[in-house]
């Protein structure tokens, strides 16, 4: 259960114990704003959530019926001034960190709402760093923070740091393109970039450790006529090898369209945009 908008949710301070009998006794007949469909009740220590039905017309209407959604033992209240309470994914992420059935959140602009019993879609996001932070994870989390995505999705980052693919014995290391944040300089080691087409002797080319993908390995062979030592950093290869049945997302330099779905895997182009990420996420249920 997740309100369509926080303007459907009213907050009322009370001075009695929040049990069902007391809530029903006090709530029936009370006047509420006409848009209200839910009321968050608090006695300063505890919280309860009720769903209401009203009668009458005008800006304020009389509560005629209530359903007690959650009592204090099932409710946790969280304050996060940066959280958009209209984002079901942001709310689901908060709910995933508690054992309570219902989570009330006081978020950005002091807006309040709640979430209860929503089963989130788990989305594994595969990417490589540096640069840090992961662009794909960042764009995905930003998309989910907006209310335009109306299903709860929780991101599980699957990040590969390219530094871990290089060992101390690698004397010449090459990446497909200049990577911001790579810090592999050490005595007697050279760090090169394939897109700069560095001049190499045959002996040097044979000594290269290429950290890249199958495409960069083909380009290297075409350029230098030898096979380099190769460490695969392709997020798509990694995602496809994962045995998980959960939905996943990755980048691929061979992808030219906005996104493509291959089974449980969403594949996006390397220069991905926020628009493409949002469209890919929405495709999960459209």
Give a structural overview:
With 286 residues, the protein is of the alpha/beta class. It has two domains: 1-117, no CATH class; 120-286, no CATH class. 21% of the residues lie in helices and 34% in strands. The protein has seven helices and 17 strands. The strands form four sheets. It has a five-stranded mixed sheet with strand order 1-3-4-5-2. A five-stranded mixed sheet has the order 10-9-15-17-16. Helix 3 links the parallel strand 9 and strand 10. Helix 3 (135-144) crosses helix 7.
Structural descriptors:
elongated, 17 strands, 286 residues
| Helix fraction by DSSP (H/I, runs of at least 4) | 10-25%
Mean pLDDT over the full residue set: 93
Question: How many individual β-strands?
Answer: 17
In terms of DSSP E residues, the strand content is 25-35%
- Helix tally equals 7
Q: From the helix content, strand content and strand pairing, which structural class follows?
A: alpha/beta
Radius of gyration equals 27 Å
* Helix-strand sequence: EHEEEEEHEEEHEEEHEHEHEEEH
Main sheet characteristics: 5 strands, mixed
State the end-to-end CA separation. 20 Å
The best one-word shape is elongated
Low-confidence blocks of residues: none
Q: Structurally, how many domains make up the residues?
A: 2
Strand order of the largest sheet: 1-3-4-5-2
SSE layout and pairings?
Layout: E1 9-13, H1 20-27, E2 31-33, E3 38-42, E4 47-55, E5 60-70, E6 75-79, H2 88-95, E7 102-106, E8 112-116, E9 121-129, H3 135-144, E10 153-161, E11 172-175, E12 190-193, H4 202-207, E13 208-212, H5 214-224, E14 229-232, H6 235-241, E15 247-252, E16 260-262, E17 265-269, H7 274-282
Parallel strand pairs: 1-3, 6-7, 9-10, 9-15, 11-12, 11-13, 13-14, 15-17
Antiparallel strand pairs: 2-5, 3-4, 4-5, 7-8, 16-17
């Amino acid at each position: 259960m997740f309100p369509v908008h926080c303007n459907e949710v009213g907050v009322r301070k009370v001075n009695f114990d929040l049990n069902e009998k007391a809530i029903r006794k006090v709530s029936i007949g009370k006047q509420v704003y006409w848009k209200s469909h839910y009321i968050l009740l608090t006695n300063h220590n505890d919280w309860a959530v009720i769903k209401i039905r009203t009668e009458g017309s005008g800006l304020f209407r009389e509560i005629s019926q209530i359903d007690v959604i959650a009592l204090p033992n099932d409710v946790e209240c969280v304050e996060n001034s940066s959280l958009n309470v209209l984002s079901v994914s942001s709310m689901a992420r908060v709910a995933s960190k508690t054992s309570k059935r219902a989570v009330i959140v006081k978020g950005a602009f002091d807006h309040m709402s709640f979430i209860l019993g929503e089963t989130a879609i788990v989305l594994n996001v595969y990417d490589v760093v540096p640069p840090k932070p992961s662009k794909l994870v960042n764009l995905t989390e930003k998309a989910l923070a907006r209310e335009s995505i109306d299903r709860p999705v929780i991101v599980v980052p699957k990040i590969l740091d390219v530094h871990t693919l290089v060992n101390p014995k690698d004397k010449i290391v090459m990446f497909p393109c200049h990577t911001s944040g790579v810090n592999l300089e050490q005595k007697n080691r050279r760090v090169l970039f394939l897109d700069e087409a560095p001049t190499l002797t045959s002996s040097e080319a044979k000594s290269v450790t290429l950290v890249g993908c199958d495409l960069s390995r083909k380009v290297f062979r075409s350029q230098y006529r030898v096979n380099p030592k190769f460490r695969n950093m392709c997020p798509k290869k990694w995602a496809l090898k994962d045995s998980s049945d959960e939905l996943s997302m990755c980048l691929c330099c061979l992808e030219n369209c906005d996104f493509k779905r291959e089974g449980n895997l969403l594949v996006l182009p390397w220069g991905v945009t926020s628009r493409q990420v949002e469209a890919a996420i929405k495709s999960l249920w459209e």
